[in-house]
Amino acid sequence: MRSAVGAAIAAVGLVTTIVGTFLPWLKSGSTTRDSYEVLSLRDLAGLDGVSGTVVTSVWVGLTPLAMVTIALYVVRFPRFAGCIGILFGTIGGTVAMVATVQGDNKGALVGISTSGPVTTLAGAVLTIVGAITVLTSTRRSAVRTSGGNP
Predict the structure, then answer these.
(1) Spatial distance between the Cα atoms of 120 and 25, rounded to a whole number of angstroms
(2) What is the pTM of this model?
(3) CB atoms inside a 10 Å sphere around CB 127
(4) Where, by residue number, does the polypeptide cross the bilayer (predicted)?
């Protein structure tokens, strides 16, 4: 039962994290940009070449990874899904935490919009809490057979 609750919490966290990536992350004047639009500006940030490709691939890969993780919970591979969930939450949560700590610069022409990073961070925390719940509740035990050695 505890494993099912953990899987449900993790699934809500996975979906919340992905929704957060589509919310505003950057504001420039009256324009807001989600995390994917911010990635399109990576050349301006000096993330061109291999490092930019890796960052973009990992961030864009979060959505399929979330769907695979939810599918693994559904088809009853909770421990594997839990391990992936912790990895997912760590990646998404770290990026969101850095953006959240930078904060909302009131009155600045260009700044961080906190709605996307805060939502993503909350989802990442839920994902990790759910995954840890699953991993600590799903334990296999040895089966004793009659007449065998203990």
Answers:
(1) 10
(2) 0.83
(3) 31
(4) 44-73, 80-101, 107-135
